[in-house]
Amino acid sequence: MGFNFVIENLLEKLSEGSIVFKRHHMYQFTIGVFLFSIFALSYRLLIVFNNYNEKTKSEEKLKTMLTETKLNALKAYVNPHFLFNSLNSVNALITIEPEKAREMIVNLSDYFRYSLKQKDIDFIRFEDELHYTKTYFDIEKQMFGDRVEVEMEFDNEILDFKVPVMILQPLFENVIKHAVSESLEIVKLKFNAEISDNKLKIEISNNYDPESISHIGSGIGLSTTAERLHLIYGNRNLLKFTKKDGIFKVILEIQESK
In this predicted model, what pLDDT tens digit does every residue of 130-146 receive, in sequence order? Predict the structure, then answer.
């Protein structure tokens, strides 16, 4: 009886060309149990799905908060690091070239005034970011003078492209720290930027002395920039660098902001 009775009754009626079942109390009971089981299972699945959905949302929210915290920490690191290096430069200039030291302090004041305006901004126009970076580089050039030459090439179409704020400065700082400061020869820095496949491709290259710079490219600036790009875009391959034939090259790709 029970479920077997329902199946046998169904097969019998199907063979006769009719699916009208005989009324039977056991049949009605079994169908009731079956429908209740389906309802209970559906309700349970709904609860499980809702719990999973809430858990997923919570995990995503936590992940987003963690990412924002890491990004803020990395961004906050850039300025103090630059200030530390700049103050060392000012200290070195005070005794040998006090006029340059005073000029450098004025430029630092302008630089940090501009920096404070961007402290709550995540993305900035390429033109503004480049101006921000060139201001930094001019400060450094006051220390090294003619020992570094800069050549820039880019089209005006990229000026409005949005990039993460303070994304270029660590790359220029890397050149100063690992090439200019450890070489007696003139360091030629080439900067090229173009848009390809909705991405801004930036290439920075400079010559260096392989004998005097064994640690070039291992600076904190590059690793910080790479980590920021990963946190922003979820891609660990947006910053690459090569060393070949006395040329150090950094290739940076920035995705178009939505």
Answer: 988 888 888 877 777 77
Residue 120 lies in a domain: yes
Question: Domain of 248: which CATH number?
Answer: 3.30.565.10
Which residue range(s) make up the domain with 113? Answer: 67-255
Q: Buried b vs exposed e over 186-206: b needs ≥16 C-beta within 10 Å?
A: ebebbbebebeeeebebebbb
Closest CA to 210 of 256, 179, 175: 179
Whether 50 is in a domain gets the answer: no
Rounded distance, CA 211 to CA 132, Å?
33
> Does the model's pTM come out above 0.70?
no
Q: Which two tokens stand for residue 74?
A: 């990395």
Give CA 136 to chain center in angstroms. Answer: 22
Place of tokens 């995503």: 60
Q: Which two tokens stand for residue 159?
A: 């000026």
Instruction: Give the pair of three-digit tokens for residue 256.
Output: 């178009």
Residue 19 covered by a domain:
no
Q: Give 62-68 contacts, CB < 8 A, sequence gap 24+.
A: 67/231
pLDDT digits (tens, 9 = 90+) for 20-71: 545 555 555 566 666 667 767 777 777 777 776 776 766 666 556 555 555 5
How many CA atoms lie less than 13 Å away from 229 in the CB half-sphere? 23
Question: How many distinct structural domains can be found in the chain?
Answer: 1
- Asked if residue 15 belongs to a domain, the reply is no
Q: Which phi-psi region, left, alpha or beta, contains residue 155 (left: φ > 0; alpha: ψ -120 to 50)?
A: beta
Provide the angle, in degrees to the nearest 10, between the axes of the packed helices 98-117 and 25-96. Answer: 160
DSSP track, 180-201: GGG-SSPEEEEEEEEEETTEEE
Token look-up 């959905």 returns 53
